[in-house]
What does this fold into?
Amino acid sequence: MIMKKIFYAAAALAVLLGCSCCTVRDNTIPGWPWHDPDDPDDPWTEITDEYTNIPDYVKLYKSPAMLLHRSAVAYYASVDMNRTDMKVWGLNDPTLSGVDAVEQPLRTPRTCYEKVGNPCVIINGGFFYSENGKNYTASLAISNGQLLSPNINYASEDWVTMYYPTRGVFLQTETGFVTGWTYWQSADNHYLYSSPAANSWGADPLQVPDSTFPTTATSVVAKNGIGAGPVLIKGGKVVCTYREELFNGAESGILCDTRHPRTAIGITADKHLIMFVCEGRQKTPGVEGYTLDEVAKIMKNLGCVEALNLDGGGSTCMLINGVETVKPSDDEERPVGSCIYISR
It folds into this structure.
């Protein structure tokens, strides 16, 4: 979703996936009719063989017709990160994200695909917006150790009361992959936290994050990374920190608790990168998409121990060998501010 000046989301909707009238499962009953709500309805179908020239460290999957008890059109790539790296393209604004316009043009995933050498898989990345013909980035992007842009570091509903949220990131470091929350003060003070600042709309703003608040910080150092939010899974637990990241404001752009096309990225315990997209907004009749709580559950079911929500809605796109998977909700690919891709 193309963001305006600030990136908010509606409060997340608790996901009801079981039978509300039967809270105790009696496994002695033959032919128990309900699915376990923690498991997908049916297996995903591997579709790797439907494409040519896919490296053997990449496996491709399409969702069953029903996923989490809802009609679905969704895809994911599982990439063995013991054998390759994820790569990132993004608008280059390494100063303060969201303040100065970026001279670079936005790119559709297809344009990015052509510019970076026809990777086998590419998905859209973090948040951005355009205003008065100018482009602005609002999410972290790190490529080959170079900071292209940090996460935006302020938020307001009235532009009088200012908040300073920590926003989610997904980082590839020298030792592995991690989600976390960041705050940019300067090139020398770019902080990474293990927990977010517990901001909340309607409450007084918390202090500006620093080296010791909200937790003891480390510096943001990564080979490659992407920001957006909220963090969906941290340390194997679903967290979905949309409130703390202030994505639930009045001018919602992320719409956490309603069903839309979504893009997410995560890592499994055995270091397989999961690149996920789902269609929505009835581009296929009956397919609405998913809430962020539901996306978090899907990513957990796919084995992710860390996962981050990326830009969604009209931005959601996955190309395999340059071919679209889900139907774009804008009827054509939207130019975006960053992409993540896997080279051959």
About this structure: DSSP finds two helices and 24 strands in the chain. The helical segments are 109-115, 292-301.
